[in-house]
Amino acid sequence: MNPILASFLFLFPLVMSVTWTVGGAARFFLTEVGKRVGRRPTADSLDIPVSIIIPCFNEAQHLAATVGKALSINSRNFEVIAVDDGSTDETARILSDLARATPRLRVISLGDNQGKAAALRAAARIATHEMLICIDGDAYIDADAPAWLAAALSADPRLGAVTGNPRIRNRRTLLGKIQVGEYSAMIGMIKRTQTLFDCLFTLSGVIAGFRKSAVVAVDYWGLDALTEDMDITWRLQRADWRTTFEPRALVAILTPETFKGLWRQRLRWAMGGAQVMARNLETLWRPAPVNLRFLMVEMVLSVVWSYLLVASTLYGIGALVITWISGATWTPEWTAGSAGLVLAACGITQMAVGVALDRRYDPEIGSIVGHLFWYPLVFWLLQTATTVVAYPMVAFRQRGIRATWVSPDRGRS
Questions:
Q1: How far apart, in whole angstroms, are the C-alpha atoms of residue 215 and residue 342?
Q2: HEC string of 76-101?
Q3: In this structure, which of 161, 248, 329, 369 has its CB flanked by the most CB atoms within 10 Å?
Q4: Are 392 and 367 contacting, i.e. CB atoms less than 8 angstroms apart?
């Protein structure tokens, strides 16, 4: 293998793993421990008016509990707006029954399936309050989460949005358990590191707080965005709005428990990333915040790494087959094994640090720690596979097509 290619394939994941580990730990100790932050929201933050927005599509199984959690938040001035986006199950009926029993709940019906972005737009336009808290239709929001998000937004007039801290609640299967590692050692650590550079790659669509005036300024969520959360994150930041991460704003979510469901979810994420990259690649040469350029460079290198890894793997397999057919002796290079051990050690270290930091917000994480160390390997392999498949799909996708929902493939609570 070409030495430069081999070095890149080894150094890129190594550098990123070290960066996320060190950066995540630094952010934690700088802002999340000691007397710097409280364990409960202040009394003033409970007085900040908030509008809870819940876009729904075929969420009958979890919707009553989701709305119930939203109506039980620790806030003295709030409303809940649920949007039925053309569901084909009992979602509309459930929302209608809940609205009759609860004056705080407002319901919008879009009739046809128009997409999550359209549902969010509709709710934001009629929202009474400046602080918008958006959650998914299966998310169980923590009672204090809206206050934490609203407090962050009210403290900084240039803060356009703040993302919360999702926690997985379906942990009975192996696939469910190892995804806990993703939210601890991958998503959580990456978001912490990115906030050190005052930017985020994406606000978690499952829980995020927005300043309504900022959302209006960037013309709401893009109707043709495959991942509306990534799209609005970049549009806000390119418009000079700040974003940040609030780990105390917790929400319990469901994740796929089948490989088919996980593949579909991650392929959609990869396609959304490809779309964001295509729309924002110009930040590399046009005037743009420096921190966004760093994010874009990391994204480009990640895509290049994925394709090179697949190409080099296929090349190695081909060489091995030719060697076997010719009857020659094949001896693997010791450096490949050494590189793998180093990357494995970095992945385990990253996972251990992530778990240690997240025990503050997820005390039960220690009970499944033995399953979590698989995730760094799963993360890189899954990211590589979905990236290689997603980018051609987006390249040949017709522009301007509205992104609509499909029934989510989630696990069981």
A1: 44
A2: CCEEEEEEECCCCCCHHHHHHHHHHH
A3: 161
A4: no
Give the three-state DSSP class for 296. Answer: helix
Tell me how far apart the alpha carbons of residues 33 and 139 are, in angstroms, rounded to a whole number: 27
How many CA atoms lie within 13 Å of 294's alpha carbon, on the beta-carbon side?
13
Q: Give the contacts of 210 (CB within 8 A, at least 6 positions apart).
A: 124, 131, 132, 133, 134, 153, 160, 161
CA distance 232 to 128: 21
How far is the C-alpha of 227 from the C-alpha of 206, rounded, in Å?
A: 12
Separation between Cα atoms, residue 257 and residue 176, nearest integer Å? 6
Q: What is the residue-level pLDDT of the chain in tens, covering all 413 positions?
A: 677 888 898 899 899 999 999 999 999 999 888 756 677 888 899 999 999 999 999 999 899 999 999 999 999 999 999 999 999 999 999 999 999 999 899 999 998 889 999 999 999 999 999 999 999 999 999 999 999 999 999 999 999 999 999 998 888 777 777 777 777 667 889 999 999 999 999 999 999 999 999 999 999 999 999 999 999 999 999 999 999 999 999 999 988 888 888 889 889 999 999 999 999 999 999 888 889 999 999 999 999 999 998 988 888 788 778 877 877 665 555 455 577 788 878 878 888 888 888 888 888 887 776 766 666 667 778 889 999 999 999 988 877 777 776 655 555 54
Helix orientation angle between 228-238 and 116-126, rounded to the nearest 10 degrees? 60
